[in-house]
Amino acid sequence: MATRSPLLRIHGMLESIREIEKAVAGKTLRDYKRSWVLRSAVERGIEVISEASRHLGSDLKAQYEDVRWVDIAGIGNILRHEYQRIDAAIIWRAVKNDLPPLKDALLAMRLPRISARPGVYKIKYAGHVPGKIEDARPRIANSVLCFAGAQ
């Protein structure tokens, strides 16, 4: 299995955060507790974030000490293996209180990695024609970064 670059993992984490934000927009804790579908979607997004965080280098994470990296990695195990003990209020607080600083850190991590690699990457834009890849400077929103030579 090919190893995904840190930039692709960061992008995946940001995508999960964006989707969680959309899912809970305008919702209350009561709405969240009452919707199995909403809880399941949010929990799955957090699992993805958790797993991806485990594959970011410790040197990279050390630059963002205010992010609770150990807790982020650990919550995935709880969601996967101790699902019967999940407290909806705790997940809700994590979404509301912990995802915003994580998102800020991930955005900060991503920018130097993009600008430091001019001409090395290719971009597939959302809605692209299959098989057509454009060489360009990355557009951050709505793009999937594919590094040349990456599998």
Neighbour order of strands in the largest sheet: 1-2
Number of helices: 6
Major beta sheet, specifics? Answer: 2 strands, antiparallel
The percentage helix is 55-70%
Number of domains: 2
> How much is the average pLDDT?
79
Structural class: mainly alpha
Give the C-alpha Rg. Answer: 17 Å
Question: Which regions contain 5 or more consecutive residues with pLDDT less than 50?
Answer: 118-151
Taken in chain order, the helices and strands follow as: HHHHHHEE
What's the overall geometry? globular
Strands, total number? 2
Terminal Cα span: 9 Å
> In percent terms, what proportion of residues is strand?
5-15%
Description:
The chain is 59% helix and 7% strand. It folds into two domains: 6-116; 118-151, no CATH class. The protein starts with 5 loop residues before the first helix and ends with a strand. It has a two-stranded antiparallel sheet with strand order 1-2. The protein has helices spanning 6-24, 29-34, 36-53, 58-62, 69-81, 88-115; strands spanning 121-125, 143-147. The radius of gyration is 17 Å and the shape is globular. The chain is mostly helical.
Keyphrases for this structure?
151 residues; mainly alpha; 2 domains; 2 strands; 59% helix
Short description:
The protein is mainly alpha-helical and 151 residues long. Helices cover 59% and strands 7% of the residues.
Write the layout of secondary structure elements.
Layout: H1 6-24, H2 29-34, H3 36-53, H4 58-62, H5 69-81, H6 88-115, E1 121-125, E2 143-147
Antiparallel strand pairs: 1-2
